[in-house]
Design a protein that fits this description.
Layout: H1 8-11, H2 13-17, H3 34-45, H4 49-62, H5 69-82, H6 86-99, H7 104-115, H8 124-139, H9 148-172, H10 177-189, H11 193-196, H12 201-212, H13 220-233, H14 236-254, H15 260-269
């Protein structure tokens, strides 16, 4: 399935829109070496991101077995994120997972960055790895000592991204569009209405595309709804990209374009169509 892309910035939106609680080591962790304490305090107190990243990296090189290695890597993820440096951000997240394999933040940012690289079937290794890590993230337990509210904020941000990564792997690599539909649907159900119009909009479009593909999951009525939903909230410059797909799926379902405006209006008001939604073929219409 050829991806329809609204805008490159939307693919990387997660890197900037996420505002999640930091799951750091417990305050009871104590560094015993005074020199290490001083180095840690100096590095973590810096406010310039470049200087802080360099100091934190230097700390880890000098104290590779430090008891605060996990929280330092956690801070490095945030620091590289502020520098818009996904390669180093991914490296920090990968290192954090080596220390703490179930760390949801490490899983989240690894998946977020890796899934953005999954764009074609030849990216199978990246896509499969991102999807496997996403499955692990969905099953990750809440760490001891983490407040329920903090954990909910983290999972509210992470779980839609995990479902998206699995869906991308299903559609791009496995060509299992029915599985992709299920994952995109699970993702969109986790968004509020406002979120579905922003960070969920790209995958609304991908869900529509999955429904339009030949096979057991094809459903042109559903495709029409989600193309209409995406069309309603896409930037003006991208409506022309979506319109032919919308009209094509609706014409296959109904036979003509009569009634399409009503579907657009209804889709603007709800992420999902009402139960039992269908499009009746027009009498005598040639599809």
């Amino acid at each position: 399935m050829k991806k329809l892309v609204l805008a490159s910035t939307m693919l990387f939106a997660g890197i900037s829109f996420l505002s999640v609680p930091t799951l750091r080591a417990q305050d009871s962790i104590t560094i015993k070496d005074p020199a290490e304490v001083s180095a840690y305090q100096t590095a973590t107190a810096l406010t310039d991101p470049k200087a802080k990243a360099a100091a934190l990296e230097g700390f880890l090189q000098k104290y590779p077995q430090s008891v605060v290695k996990a929280p330092v890597l956690d801070m490095l993820i945030d620091t590289y994120q502020s520098l818009n440096d996904p390669d180093h951000e991914l490296a920090a997240a990968t290192s954090l997972l080596q220390v703490d394999p179930a760390n949801l933040k490490g899983i989240l940012y690894s998946v977020l960055i890796e899934k953005s690289k999954c764009t074609k079937p030849s990216d199978a290794q990246i896509c499969d790895a991102a999807a496997a890590l996403a499955q692990k993230g969905l099953a990750a337990p809440k760490p001891a000592g983490t407040a329920d509210d903090d954990w909910k904020k983290m999972t509210d941000a992470a779980y839609p991204i995990f479902h998206s990564a699995i869906a991308i792997d299903d559609s791009t690599v496995k060509r299992d569009y029915k599985a992709a539909e299920d994952q995109y649907t699970a993702e969109l159900k986790l968004y509020t209405d406002d979120q579905s119009k922003s960070q969920g909009l790209q995958d609304t479009l991908q869900l529509a595309s999955a429904y339009s593909q030949p096979g057991p999951g094809q459903d042109m009525a559903q495709a029409s709804w989600f193309f209409a939903r995406a069309w309603n909230f896409a930037p003006a410059s991208y409506k022309a990209q979506i319109e032919p797909k919308l009209e094509g799926s609706y014409r296959k379902a109904h036979g003509k374009l009569e009634g399409l405006d009503a579907v657009k209006t209804k889709a603007a008001a709800s992420t999902f169509p009402p139960l039992g939604f269908s499009i009746t073929p027009a009498p005598g219409a040639a599809k």
